[in-house]
Structures are given as C-alpha cells and as structure tokens.
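Async update (no meeting this week)

Hi team, since we skipped the sync, here's where things stand on the single-chain job. The sequence we agreed to prioritize is pasted below, unchanged from the tracker. I ran it this morning and attached the output directly underneath so nobody has to dig for it. Comments welcome in thread, and please keep replies under the output.
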Amino acid sequence: MTRGDPEDMEDLMRIDDPAFDRVLECVFGIHAHERRTYFALLEMPGSTVSEIADELDRDRSNVNRSLSTLAEKSLIERDRKILDGGGYIYQYYPTPIPEAKELMHDAVDRWAADVHEKIDSFDT
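Output:
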C-alpha cells in the first residue's frame, strides 16, 4: 500500500479540520472519483462494475480502473460469483470504515516514523 504524495500530506496538515473524504484521498493517494466509487460500494456492497457505473454515471472502463486502484490500496475486495446458467460475474465489497480507518492510522504512523527518521538523520 502506498501513501499519498508528500505534497498532499503537507496540504492536509494546513487544514484545521479536514473532512474524512479528503483525509482518505490524501492518505491513500486516491482521486475524488476513486473515493466516490468506494463510498458507492459502501452503500451498495456486492455490486458489479455495471451497477457501480450506472450509479455513478461513469463509463465501465473508468470504474474498472477505480476499482483496480482501490483494490491495490486494500479498500475493496473482489469476489467471483458463479452464475446458474454458466459463466461468472465479479462482485465488489468495500473494506468497512473501521478497517479503513485502521489502514489510514497505520499509513500515517509509517509516514510519521519516516519523517522522524529524516529529522534524526539531519547533521548540524
């Protein structure tokens, strides 16, 4: 899992009371459309790409890219469902908010440890 850019963290630190969605974007290095996809899945767990695309009024290929990014960040999981008539579909499930918050805490803790190491490595 990668964190957001250092510039994003700097911007976030300048905000007195950042909204949860902004913190989520910053910590995970995701874009607003990826965040909207995650929040749509929180409302519609088990959705398919087509269902999410319809809900967000976005192209399926764009939704697929958002889902790939969210999966890389451990914010969603994909489950393959076998269809009765043969074939399969993928359904997507969001990481619950409490678990996402833990992932965010872990990422910020690692970032802070990196900053502390940089501070300690400065020579006078």
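Quick observations from my side:
The chain has one domain: 6-121.
Helices lie at 6-13, 20-28, 32-43, 49-56, 60-72, 97-121.
Reply here if anything looks off.
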